[in-house]
Amino acid sequence: MKLGKEEIQKLALGILLLIGVVYSYFDMLLFPELKKQDAVAKNIASLSPEIKKAQEQIKRAQDLEQSAPGKTQVVPQVEAMIPDGAPVAWFPPRISELFKREGIDKVAAKLNNETAEKDLPGFRRIAWTIDFPKVDFIGYARALSTLENDEPLVAVTSLSIEPSVDDVETQRALITVNNLVKQ
Amino acid sequence: MSLRLNLYHEVQKQAALKRRDPLKLSLYGMGAIAVCMAGYYFLQLGKSHGLNSELDRLKAEHSKLDPEAKTALKREEELAAKIKMNELIERRIEERLYWAPLLEQLVGVVPREVQLIKISGEIESEITKKCTLTINGISAGTDARGIAEELRIAVAERLGTKYRNVTAKFRSLDDGSEPVALEGKQLPTAAFVIAVDLTWGGEALAAAAPRRKR
User: Which of A37, A44, A160 sits opposite B48 (nearest CB)?
Assistant: First the structure.
């Protein structure tokens, strides 16, 4: 089959048109669309972990919230154990009363110093010296045991017991304690 | 045999040529390709639409969850701080050194030949939970020094059952200047000072008995 001049011209024009159409199709339609798809897919890929992370965070907080009541009871209990007002007004009478119940009448509590509790915001520590001018060792040890059991916020940091100067039958005892109080 | 003459052969040839026109055939082919390409493009458009919908859904979910997550994080931090504070207070209460049982154990090992004059104790460090005790006393007997040594060993052994790293050392051990009467006998004395170091808290370890020093 032999193509005429006119047909060759038509064919050349068709090929040119075809190239233009194909180029336009890929460059103006398909590739931009694929690029957009790619960007959207990337956005989806980046959002999905964030959503998962947020869901996990919410779940973790909910779990903690559920288990928290059992783990946060101590602070309210401790706060309820600490009377309002200046510790110097209530601590010495409280200690005197405790030891009086144990049969030790003469007790003197003196404030030494106070320091802020860095780890426990809202609390401070007060150091006291408690002097027992006349005690017998057994009664003193029993009273000390009562103090340690009844006053969980009091920690004895040092003690000494030695014979009284004026009475060989009794001893003189001295303890220093740290007491946790509200700020 | 009759002779047949096709007088339309030129017309038929022209029609066949027209039917097999390469331009027309290529136009048909191009049309088919164009339809395929358009179909693929619309397929991609559909896919894009699906992806966009998914992205919109995720964005909406994220914008809803993000503030909730921030609030949850804040709440979690608050609760964690509260729990930590509770644990600290609880540990401080539970891990105090209880002096009364310590004194009870100490007094339990003092024999009748020994009189304690002074007991003093101090917490060296609340972090390492170290405590020191100083025991001043007088022992009486034919071997007063030996009795004091037995007391030192007994103190270390007894306290070692409840506390860790217990050591009991003589700070001083001197012969007494005056004898004392015990069960009607005049016995020599020895004055001693024993320094006891111990660590409380954690599991109690049985301390190895100190060797008798002679």
Answer: A37
Whether A51 and B62 lie within 8 Å, measured CB to CB: yes
Separation of alpha carbons B164 and B154, rounded Å:
15
- What is the residue-averaged pLDDT of chain B? 86
Which chain B residues touch A66 with a CB distance below 8 Å? none
**Nearest CA of chain B to the CA of A89: how many Å?**
23
Give me the half-sphere count of Cα atoms (radius 13 Å) on the Cβ side of residue B151: 32
- Looking at residue A46, its pLDDT comes to 93
What pLDDT score does B208 carry?
39
Q: Is the pLDDT of residue B207 over 80?
A: no
Could B23 and A14 be called an inter-chain contact, meaning their C-beta atoms sit closer than 8 Å? Answer: yes
Q: Which residue in the set B58, B90, B121 is minimally distant from A44, CB to CB?
A: B58
**What are the residue ranges of helices labelled H in chain B?**
9-19, 22-94, 99-108, 144-160
Nearest-Å Rg of the Cα atoms of chain B is: 51
Q: Which residues in chain A touch residue B117, judged by CB atoms under 8 angstroms apart?
A: 162-163
DSSP state of B202: S
pLDDT band with cut points at 50, 70 and 90 for residue B1: low
- B54 phi and psi angles, rounded to 5 deg: -65, -40
Alpha helix locations (H) across A102-179? 137-150
Question: What is the pLDDT at residue B193?
Answer: 95
Q: Work out the pLDDT band at B94, boundaries 50, 70, 90.
A: confident
